[in-house]
Amino acid sequence: MARLSLFSALLFGLASTAAQACGSQAEPCKVPLGDYHAAVPATAPSLGKKRPAVLFFHGAGGGGDAVLSADSVLKPFVEAGYVVLGPSGLVMQNSRYGRGWSFLPDAPQQRDELAFAQQVLDDAVARFGIDRKRVLVGGFSIGASLTWYLACRQPDLGAAYAPLAGNFWRPHPTKCAGPVDILQTHGWRDEVFPLEGRQLGPNHAQGDVFEGLQLWRATDGCKTTRPDTIEVHGPVWQRSWTNCESGRQVSLVLHAGGHEDPPKEWAELARHWFEARLKARPVAN
Q1: Would you say the C-alpha torsion 227, 233, 234, 238 has a positive or negative sign?
Q2: Does the residue 196 lie in any domain?
């Protein structure tokens, strides 16, 4: 079996042995603007405690039902007690990939994706006992691009952001609404969404990861262009900007793989980074 075709099957982890409040794989949780699936930990949370969650947007041609896959790089999140939410994109008009997202500000919008994401979170908080203040928002490929735009448009949609193999498209935004904690992960050999981006037809071009990170550093009030910490964790290399006036952090993780081949360590790295950011920026219960 390929490493989870088009990586969309990679996006979400572990079908829970606990009861699925929204039914089977064919019966997603529904909100007014669409639907989503959820992988729920098999064990109940501690008495009186709410669960953290990951809201993760699939890549082109994927679907939220990948949350029920038995094999996923997000499996460690579920095993650590997180609810993993898999929203489904709409079938895009004139697209050969099928489902996707309305993320480009200057392109036709089939749906207000920010409003959809808010509906998913509101519904999931009520259904699954999620702590709304401990939600990590991420995505893969164009799902990662959507993550960047949502973070830029409404920074407090999530407590932090962990996009994977995607970012802004050209022309890049010149301003974002506020600071965020963001962990960008990208493959050194990614040819589908290269680090520097690429032209796709006459009207659209993927953006440059480094240019996008500069906007986040400026938005977060980071004091230098040089990273404050540089770390190597086995097959991944991490550069972080931590000396920022906002108290937020910008981090870039690089790995040697391509677009559909993230390191197996990614989920644990992202989870530990997220939990460290929550501790550094305490939130009220």
Answers
A1: negative
A2: yes
Residue given tokens 């910490």 in the structure block: 229
Helix pair 113-128, 142-153: axis angle to 10 deg = 90
- Identify whether 285 is part of a domain: no
Residue 254: give its domain's CATH number. 3.40.50.1820
Q: What share of the chain is helix, strand, coil (3-state, %, to 5)?
A: 25, 25, 50
Q: Kindly report, residue by residue over 114-154, the tens digit of the pLDDT.
A: 999 999 999 999 999 999 999 999 999 999 999 999 999 99
Query: How far apart are the C-alpha atoms of 161 and 173, rounded to whole Å?
Result: 17
**Ramachandran angles phi, psi of 33, nearest 5°:** -95, 0
In a domain, 82, yes or no: yes
DSSP state of 36: E
Q: How many angstroms separate the Cα of 22 from the Cα of each of 50, 59, 68, 124?
A: 19, 23, 12, 10
Sign of the Cα pseudo-torsion (45, 33, 9, 15, in order): positive
Here the tokens at position 79 are 């095993």
Q: Which residues of 198-225 are buried (b: 16+ CB within 10 A; e: fewer)?
A: eeeeeeeebbbbeebbebbbbbbebeee
Distance (Å) of CA 258 to CA 56, 176, 233, 252, 262? 20, 29, 18, 16, 7
Domain with 237, as residue range(s), is: 5-280
Residue 199 lies in a domain: yes
Distances (CA, A) of 273 to 189, 224, 239, 253, 259: 24, 21, 12, 11, 22
Q: Give the count of domains, the chain.
A: 1
Structure pTM?
A: 0.91
